[in-house]
Amino acid sequence: MSQVNLFMYTNEHYEQCDAFILPEEQIQFTTFPTEVVSEALENPDKFPVVIKKGLEVVGFFVLHLNPPKTHRTDERSVLLRAFSIDARHQKQGYAKEAMMQLPAFVQAHFPEVTAITLAVNKKNIAAKSLYFKTGYVDTLQSVMGPIGEQHILAFDLQKETTPQ
């Protein structure tokens, strides 16, 4: 049985998201949920998602339909943005479990989407390792982000299998 589950964000999650703690070394690579949730809710192409263990929000990210061409592999890609796990819940496998559930979640909510893409800073070794372990591949595309080069990784939803 899953330890965590993915849910579309609602305003009832705000207080827990606002209480998020991120380690200093991770703040350079991601952002606090409440710093992006308002903008996401105002944009019809952005969908905030919470990662919950029981009733507790342990993680957060945004799914962005129609992202910039530099951040997608095809016209029907969705971009994973602002992925984070609250510091109090890190190193418990929740990030990996959420990433493993993500393809089915995306297919259930956005059946037209053919790939999940993300941009990861080349210096963010822990995140890159997580993404590679959960089936993402390097597209060999890169973009410049606020603190340096970011690699574009992708998960092809048209493949039959998800790594375990």
From TrEMBL:
Family matches, as InterPro entries: Acyl_CoA_acyltransferase (IPR016181), GNAT_dom (IPR000182)
Pfam families: Acetyltransf_1
SUPFAM superfamilies: Acyl-CoA N-acyltransferases (Nat)
Gene3D superfamilies: 3.40.630.30
Coiled coil (residue ranges): none
Superkingdom to which the source organism belongs: Bacteria
Domain N-acetyltransferase, residue spans: 8-162
The protein's name in its UniProt record: GCN5 family acetyltransferase
Native organism: Exiguobacterium undae
